[in-house]
Structure formats: structure tokens, C-alpha cells
């Protein structure tokens, strides 16, 4: 990829336009708390600005933002104990599903997302980075700061944990 | 549906409901300015590897691309009576938009080649649209095997956006979920619709279309709950201004259809949703 001749301000503006919304969505899947998700992603952009002189490359910058977002979500979970709060607040099974296919789909999606929410953090990261962000194993390893073998084992344990939920729904 | 596909759809549906605050960029800029004024200090960057991003190879069971809004009833270009072929373009806001053309029916390879040739030609019917591929990129070969369409181009994608423009166009033509650019390239799939597609599409009528007087059938797709449809006459006067409810579509787009009674003349249709607008100039009568 050609080196963009951007300064740090320009880089933040460009990378904001291209990646902010998907990164907030990624963070909200890792955290399940939207206000906090935006805060974590904004932190990542502020850090990127300080770091830009050493990156100077849009691809590396995106990898940097992902690492910062994954780390930011991890520490937010540790500090705010949102996991516990969310497990407690996990919604009860919905009653009277509508006959509408759309509504039924929404219930199915909600049940799967609830199950992903209940996974241990590393397993949830592996699942979200793979199936939502569509990253390769190497990219997931980089974003999580672990080996590719560890990514594989987190992902396969997560899929195994989700399988009963998925089978119940199908 | 495979477990992987169920997980993918559920995550995409959940992500599709997340919106961002409109002043986020200003917030970041403000924080950068405040940071500059204070003494510089090291940011925690533990775990960072700035190695170049490795090739994105995601080996997953094949699944058909998610359903997309139906094509328009008519098109403005191509072979009359041929098969409808979708070509994706970069819309004004950077998201993908779709146009249809009619081409002679053919094999999946022939359809993919025809759609790609049109995409690389870089001449959408709507002048607001563009291609992310550099002029002069050519298709050398297209082959479909085991759910993967391999496209051999004289060139590689200049950006992730260009790769997605190609992937959406090729998967629409072949009905196969995966695409490889160049025989040794990584296997690519469609990115999440909500992050990849433009927030709103005016599907029908297409830009530049001449519609018979009587009822003008308008078909819109967008993310969210509603879309605002405005029609301006040649004078600039707004003759229709309506908010339409969208069918529930998450994680795909929702759709709305309405038939408008318009007198003969030139009009601009504007569909607005999620802070974006798609507009098409049409002639009635």
C-alpha cells in the first residue's frame, strides 16, 4: 500500500471516517456497554495520534487501533466489572415469539449474543474478531497479543461452549 | 445454517443496532488538543506488534451470501431482455451502493467477468458513484471452484474498500460466498453489510431512468427503522416529502416501497437515512 503522506491530525480524521463506527461496534460486542465502547475507541484514536509518527501507514494504524481497542475493552471489563453486571442483567428467555420470521430471527440472534456475552473474555474476543471483524488467525493473534495456537484453542472452546445454544435454536 | 454462520449473523445483527455519537470526531480532536498542552508522557502500548498485517485467510464453511434487497424492475443500460447483473460502486459517503445492468445470460464465470469488466470500466449510471479501482485494471481470468471464485487481475486491490467492492460484485454474480484475488491471494468474504454498504440505497427508479407517467414505483433500502423520501421538481420545489417505515431487516437492510403520482417532467428523488442521502435524477412521461 502506498504511504499516505498524512500528518497525525489528518491520519486521525481519515482513519476516523474509515474505521470509527466498525470499531465502536467491535468494542460494543466485546463490552456490551455502548457508552463505554465509544470511550474505549476514542482513547484508541487519541493514542494513535500520539503514535502516528512511528506508524505512518494506514494498515499498521488499523492494526494498532484494534490492539488498543481490545486492550481497552479488557481493562474496562476488569475495572468496571461490567461482566458481572451484565451476567446479572442477562435477559430472561423471551415469551411468545412472534410468528413473523423477522421477529423470530431477532430472538435467535439475541439468544446467541447472550451466550457469547457469557463466554470468558478471551474466548469472546476470539469469536468476535473472527466472526464479526472477519480477521485472519494471524490478525486475531496480533489484536489479542497471543499466539496463533492460543487463538485457535480459545475459538474452538468458544464454539464448543456455544454449540448447545445453537443446537437448541436450530 | 452452520454454527459459524449463526454466530456471524447474530453478531452482525447486534452490531447493526449500535450507533455512534455524532460529535465523536470533535471529542477526539478536543482530547488530542488537551493532551498536546499537557506534558508529554508515555502511553501504554503493551502487546503492540507493528508488523505488517498478514494475509487475511479465514477458512470457514461455505454459506451463501446473505439475502439482499430485490433488484429493480428496470435498468438503464446493458442488453435488453438479458439477465440482471449487479455491480457495486463506492457511494458518496464511502459505503457500497449497487446498480443493475442487463447482460446476456451466461455461466457464473461469464457473469462475474461481465460484472467485473463493467466495474473496472468505472462508468456507473449515477455520476455520484465511483470505483475504487485504478483505471486500466483488466480481468485476465475468472474461475469458480468449491465455492471460491478466483479472479486473476492485472493488479491487486489498492485498498480494503476496493477489495470489498470486488467481493460484493463477484459474489452477486456467481452466488458463491468466497473470492480470491490472484491465484495465491487470500480468500475474502463479504464484510458485514452494516459496515460495508452505504446507509441508504435508492433502488428503483435507477439514476437517469425514464418512467412512464401514471404511478412511479419507488423502492428504497436502508439500515434502521425509517427513511425520508423527498422528490424535487426541476424548479427545485419539493413536491413529495414523506417518511417511510422500513421492513425489519437487521443485519441486512430494511426496505420500503411506495408508488407516487407524478406529472410528466424531470425530478430528483432523494432518499435519506442514517445521515446519508442517495439521489437519482429521473424523467417522468
Quaternary state reads heterodimer
Order of helices and strands of chain B: HHEEHEEHEEHEEEEEEEE
Estimate the mean pLDDT confidence of chain B: 80
Low-confidence stretches of chain B: 39-67, 73-79
Question: What's the N-to-C terminus distance of chain A?
Answer: 43 Å
Provide the helix percentage of chain B.
10-25%
| Average pLDDT level of chain A | 81
Beta-strand content estimate of chain B: 25-35%
Distance between the termini of chain B: 47 Å
Cα shape of chain A:
elongated
Number of structural domains of chain B: 2
- In the sheet with the most strands of chain B, the strands line up as 8-14-13-10-11
Radius of gyration of chain B: 21 Å
Radius of gyration of chain A: 18 Å
Major pleated sheet of chain B: 5 strands, mixed
Strand content of chain A: under 5%
Main beta sheet of chain A: none
- What is the count of β-strands of chain A? 0
> Using CB atoms under 8 Å apart, which protein chain pair has the greatest interface?
A-B, 64 and 55 residues
Helical residue percent band of chain A: over 70%
Low-confidence stretches of chain A: 82-103
Summarize the structure in words.
The complex is a heterodimer of chains A (170) and B (285). Chain A has helices at residues 8-31, 34-55, 58-80, 82-89, 101-117, 121-132, 137-144, 148-169. Chain A is mainly alpha-helical. Chain A starts with 7 loop residues before the first helix and ends with a helix. Residues 82-103 of chain A have low confidence and may be disordered. Chain B has 285 residues and is α+β, with helices and mostly antiparallel strands. Chain B folds into 2 domains: 74-190, no CATH class; 199-284, Immunoglobulin-like, CATH 2.60.40. In chain B, the strands form 4 sheets. A 5-stranded mixed β-sheet of chain B has the order 8-14-13-10-11, with no helix packed on it. Chain B has a 4-stranded mixed β-sheet with strand order 3-4-5-6, with helices on one face. A 3-stranded antiparallel β-sheet of chain B has the order 7-9-12, with no helix packed on it. The longest helix of chain B has 15 residues, at 160-174. Chain B is globular and about 55 Å long. The model of chain B is unreliable at 39-67 and 73-79 (pLDDT under 50). The interface between A and B is large, with 64 and 55 residues.
Amino acid at each position: 500500500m502506498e504511504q499516505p503522506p498524512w500528518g497525525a491530525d489528518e491520519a486521525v480524521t481519515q482513519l476516523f471516517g474509515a474505521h470509527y463506527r466498525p470499531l465502536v461496534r467491535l468494542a460494543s460486542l466485546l463490552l456490551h456497554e455502548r457508552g463505554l465502547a465509544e470511550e474505549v475507541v476514542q482513547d484508541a484514536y487519541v493514542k494513535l495520534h500520539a503514535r502516528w509518527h512511528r506508524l505512518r501507514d494506514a494498515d499498521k494504524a488499523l492494526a494498532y487501533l484494534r490492539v488498543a481497542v481490545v486492550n481497552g475493552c479488557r481493562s474496562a471489563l476488569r475495572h468496571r466489572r461490567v461482566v458481572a453486571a451484565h451476567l446479572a442483567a442477562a435477559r430472561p428467555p423471551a415469551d411468545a415469539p412472534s410468528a413473523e420470521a423477522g421477529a423470530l430471527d431477532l430472538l435467535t440472534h439475541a439468544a446467541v449474543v447472550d451466550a457469547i456475552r457469557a463466554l470468558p473474555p478471551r474466548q469472546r474476543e476470539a469469536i468476535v474478531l473472527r466472526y464479526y471483524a472477519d480477521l485472519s488467525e494471524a490478525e486475531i493473534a496480533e489484536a489479542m497479543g497471543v499466539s496463533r495456537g492460543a487463538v485457535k484453542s480459545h475459538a474452538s472452546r468458544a464454539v464448543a461452549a456455544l454449540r448447545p445454544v445453537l443446537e437448541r435454536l436450530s | 445454517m452452520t454454527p459459524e454462520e449463526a454466530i456471524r449473523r447474530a453478531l452482525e445483527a447486534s452490531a447493526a443496532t449500535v450507533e455512534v455519537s455524532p460529535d465523536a470526531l470533535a471529542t477526539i480532536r478536543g482530547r488530542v488538543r488537551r493532551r498536546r498542552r499537557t506534558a508529554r508522557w508515555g502511553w501504554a502500548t503493551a502487546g503492540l506488534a507493528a508488523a505488517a498485517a498478514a494475509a487475511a485467510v479465514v477458512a470457514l464453511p461455505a454459506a451463501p451470501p446473505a439475502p439482499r434487497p430485490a433488484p429493480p424492475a428496470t435498468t438503464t443500460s446493458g442488453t435488453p431482455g438479458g439477465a440482471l447483473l449487479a455491480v457495486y460502486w463506492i457511494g458518496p459517503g464511502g459505503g457500497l451502493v449497487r446498480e443493475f445492468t442487463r447482460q446476456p445470460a451466461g455461466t457464473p464465470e461469464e457473469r462475474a467477468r461481465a460484472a467485473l469488466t463493467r466495474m473496472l470500466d468505472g462508468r456507473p449510471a449515477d455520476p455520484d458513484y465511483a470505483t475504487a479501482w485504478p483505471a486500466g485494471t483488466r480481468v485476465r481470468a475468472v474461475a469458480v471452484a468449491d465455492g471460491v471464485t478466483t479472479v486473476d487481475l492485472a493488479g491487486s486491490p489498492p485498498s480494503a474498500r476496493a477489495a470489498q467492492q470486488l467481493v460484493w460484485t463477484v459474489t452477486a454474480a456467481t452466488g458463491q460466498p468466497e473470492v480470491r484475488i490472484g491465484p495465491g491471494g487470500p480468500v475474502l468474504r463479504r464484510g458485514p453489510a452494516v459496515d460495508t454498504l452505504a446507509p441508504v440505497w435508492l433502488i428503483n427508479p435507477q439514476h437517469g431512468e425514464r418512467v412512464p407517467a401514471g404511478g412511479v414505483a419507488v423502492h428504497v433500502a436502508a439500515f434502521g427503522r425509517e427513511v425520508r423520501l423527498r422528490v424535487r421538481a426541476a424548479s427545485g420545489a419539493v413536491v413529495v416529502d414523506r417518511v417511510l417505515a422500513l421492513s425489519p431487516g437487521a443485519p441486512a437492510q430494511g426496505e420500503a416501497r411506495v408508488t407516487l403520482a407524478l406529472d410528466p417532467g424531470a425530478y430528483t428523488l432523494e432518499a435519506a437515512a442514517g445521515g446519508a442521502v442517495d439521489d437519482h435524477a429521473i424523467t417522468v412521461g
